[in-house]
Amino acid sequence: MESKKVLYWADFKKSFSRHLIERLKEKCPNYEFDVLDEIWRIKEDSFDLDQYDIVLLQSTDVTKFSANETERNIIEERLDDFADSGKKIIVSHDVIYRRTRNKRLQEMFNYQIINFHRSKEVKYSKTPYCKRVNAFSSLQSDFKLNDGEVCWGSLDSMDDKKIFFDTIIQDPETGKKIVVPLVFGKLYNCDGQLIWFNTGDTFENPPQPITSLDDNFINLLAECLKINIKELKETTINVNHLITKLHPCDFSKPFTFISYSNKNDARVYEICLFLDKLGINYFLDFKNISAAALGSDGWKDDVSRALNHVNCTSAFIFISEDFLNSDNCFYEVQEINKISKKFVPILMSISMNPERILQEINSWSALTDDALEYKNLLAIR
Length: 381
Hints:
Blueprint lengths: L3 E7 L3 H14 L3 E5 L18 E6 L9 H16 L3 E6 L9 H7 L5 E5 L2 E5 L1 H5 L9 E4 L2 E5 L9 E9 L6 E12 L3 E6 L10 H4 L3 H12 L12 H5 L11 E5 L5 H14 L3 E2 L1 H4 L2 H4 L3 H11 L3 E8 L1 H4 L2 H12 L4 E5 L6 H8 L20
Helix pairs in contact: 1-6, 2-3, 11-13
């Protein structure tokens, strides 16, 4: 096992830090840890930051690196150079919060924490991407931590990030359900690695997962130390396994129609399971149309009946190159358009030519601004 040297700083009692490091040593026996008492030491010319492979920073109480802006800038410049040299920086909770004023780190992460929601217990759920790359394997697909709060930034800035865990909360402003990341990573200038995680809010007391040395938190932190984002590879999705979890549409309740190319079935089925978690009822062809009808033009009658059903409220259209080249998918779009059913277009790949897509859907009169309501919930992750 490869050995690593880790520099650790936190804004809580050093006794907590020492106990936390002892637990991490159990999980990462080949890792050497140094605890930094004061983060301002990084700015000193005599401090050898290059001797470390990983820097782990925990801010739990909106703690600034320094009250002096010039000193903060020097600290952040050194951290920038550190990551730029191909090394890893892991930060928690408030390090990239707006009020800590670590502007350089916010730019590096392309993320600024601007929102928070008090929640003593937070449910962590592995994202489909996390499962496909078999990351954080020591943790269950779902677990809970007493984080104290969930914090997040702009959900439109996630395209350059690998989201490993997320959670569903009620947006305090709109009252709608939103999905926010709890753990994500990204590459920095090709070789550097940046990771952010949610745990660690000091409210009335120090963060409970830290003071209690919660096993899930220790495993989460150990996995952040060990993971190499550059080497993550997606495994083939077991479609048959997903199929067993899908269910027929409940026509007695409002539902949305799912239109997709069967060449994208695995990704679409994953999202349907995600819709289940949100309590969204859906119509999926092979779960509601007989095999005989699917093998003939009879499926068109079933599609038309579903779209015209009184409880069909909308349609999700999963657009890919295969979708755009499919006569069957085009038929479904025509039917959706014919009855002016509200629909939500979802691109299956961010690499698709947006101009071409816009040309394709400009004539689909059912497209309305209401489609944006689902954007953050259904981004392909």
